[in-house]
Amino acid sequence: MMEILQDVMTNEYLSFLKAQFDDMPLGIFVTDRQGIISYMNRNASSILGYRVPEDASGASLRDIDAVINASLMNSLSQIVEGRNLVLPEHRCSNRQGHFAILNVYVSPFRRQAEETLGIIGTLQDVTESARRKAELEEAILELSILAEVSEALSSTADLDEVLRIILTGVTANQGLGFNRAFLFLIDADGGYLEGKVAIGPSSPEEAGEIWSRLSRQQKSLKEMLEDYSDRENVSNYSLSSLISGWKIPLSSETFFSRALQEGMGINVTGRDELPESSREIMRRLHTVNLAVAPIISKDKKLGIIAADNQITGKRISSSDVKLLQTFANHTAVAIERSRLYDNLVEHAAELELINRQLAESQEQMIRVEKMSVIGELTSSIAHELRNPLTVIGGFANLMLSTGGMDGNSEYLNIILAETKRAETVLHHVLDFSRASRTKTRLIDFNQLVTATVQLLNSKLRHRHNPPTLRLTDARLPVWGNPDQLQHALLQFMLISMEELTDGCNVIISTLEREQKALMNIDFSGGDQAKPQIIKTLKQIFGSSTGTQKLSIIVAGETLRYHGGNYGIENVPNEFPRIYVELPQYKGGSDEETSCG
């Protein structure tokens, strides 16, 4: 009779459980106080890998533990006494070997106010949602990495810094986490991939020291990108030297060439199956598993990023390659922007130089035109003064020759001397005036100096020690009035020669310095020559008001109107030097060059 009553109670218990839990969307199982399964709904049997709930009849928590490894049997007594067991996102495999992620919740099972009958367990299969969550978290992490790398790249346009920031992002643990990274760029001719820069340790011992230091610093990826020099050490330089100058022909059949042709990343594993040219790359990089991503910007092939885990030996997955390719795409944009910036800076500098040269040329032309006007004005004034001077000198000479006014002969001689000096001044002015009528043109400075020295020698035939001429091999084009410039150069040569004895040697040379054409007049001689030269130059370039001083003033103004200058340069322990300089003409090279 007791057995019949117990069966009736059991049937009522099961009916109650079925009514409560059969249609629940969660997996539900109930055990007695000994852990023997009393009830299991369809969702629970499906999650655990039973064909139908009845197949779990008579099973215990040990059987469930054997499947999901949740230590339910060990926790049975504590749960019966009122303690709950919660296992969120518990990873396991069911009876069929299918991987699953479960939320497990186990608690005491009571009917109303009765004592605890056993335990009730809830199983929720969150495999798909956990996978999507993981993918979302991974995508968020990737976007965060890319955002921080992009921010760091936007702060610089220097190509070397751009490349190191990219490789830092590839190798930092907070970034892609590769052990080593290498970057190759296509050369200007487009025929080779050339090794540029690499980042990473060269040995496990070095890796341990570097990673330990970085771990202690606890820097974020942003901080590391902002201070990427922390990752620069001797190993980086030795690793860069491994690929520096290494040229790989794009025509060779390597996985580098294939990645560039296909425009997508490649996961290279092993060596034996690869062509010899590819095996050589793997041997030189000392690796067996390499991620390769092409750097391409708008169909323009720029280079390759390669990365590996040579230190840790961690296998490179396809997702790693995809993320490396994303980095390569950012690299392409950064490289193009850096090169564009460099081109803009270069073009801006060229334009600035051209504008400056154009302004100088225009200013020089204006000065030369002014010189022509001044030449015409001085010519008319000189002619007006020359006639009365001729009359005065003629009458004074006539009075002396007739022997009249004997008491005033001294005064007549003074009048004649000063008249001749005034005529000499007018002669210089008229020479300058005639030179001003010549049109401005492009002049070869070496030819101009040579022609002037020849003219000088014709005027100094009595001198037994002519000047030595030394011309530079450099082309020295200048712009101006050739006659005016020759007149000016001749004045400096004349004053250097006429006041010196044959014991002084004169060397006239040309040279280029700071985009200027220079003519130097150097002196040499014995111990007595140096004081004489210094004294003569002081008289000529000092505060005197003689004819020579006037000649220097006219010649100097001629040079200044042409944008040039003159002066005396004191050379230590040597003779002083006279220099004359003119700006070099930077116009078109196809213009006709003349010396006069």
What does this structure look like?
With 596 residues, the protein is of the alpha+beta class. It folds into three domains: 2-125, Beta-Lactamase; 139-342, Beta-Lactamase, CATH 3.30.450; 438-596, 2-Layer Sandwich (Heat Shock Protein 90). Helix content is 51%, strand content 21%. It is built from 17 helices and 18 strands. It has helices at residues 2-21, 42-48, 61-68, 76-80, 127-154, 159-171, 204-217, 221-226, 234-243, 255-262, 276-285, 318-401, 409-436, 445-459, 482-498, 529-541, 547-561, and strands at residues 27-32, 37-40, 85-93, 99-110, 116-125, 180-186, 192-199, 247-249, 266-269, 289-297, 300-308, 441-444, 468-470, 477-480, 504-513, 516-525, 565-569, 577-583. It has a six-stranded antiparallel β-sheet with strand order 8-7-6-11-10-9, with helices on both faces. A hairpin with a 2-residue loop joins strand 10 (289-297) and strand 11. Helix 15 (482-498) runs antiparallel to helix 17 (547-561). It is rod-shaped, with a radius of gyration of 49 Å. The termini are far apart.
Topology:
Blueprint: H1 2-21, E1 27-32, E2 37-40, H2 42-48, H3 61-68, H4 76-80, E3 85-93, E4 99-110, E5 116-125, H5 127-154, H6 159-171, E6 180-186, E7 192-199, H7 204-217, H8 221-226, H9 234-243, E8 247-249, H10 255-262, E9 266-269, H11 276-285, E10 289-297, E11 300-308, H12 318-401, H13 409-436, E12 441-444, H14 445-459, E13 468-470, E14 477-480, H15 482-498, E15 504-513, E16 516-525, H16 529-541, H17 547-561, E17 565-569, E18 577-583
Parallel strand pairs: 13-15
Antiparallel strand pairs: 1-2, 1-5, 3-4, 4-5, 6-7, 6-11, 7-8, 9-10, 10-11, 12-14, 15-16, 16-18, 17-18
Helix pairs in contact: 5-6, 5-12, 6-12, 12-13, 13-15, 13-17, 14-15, 15-17
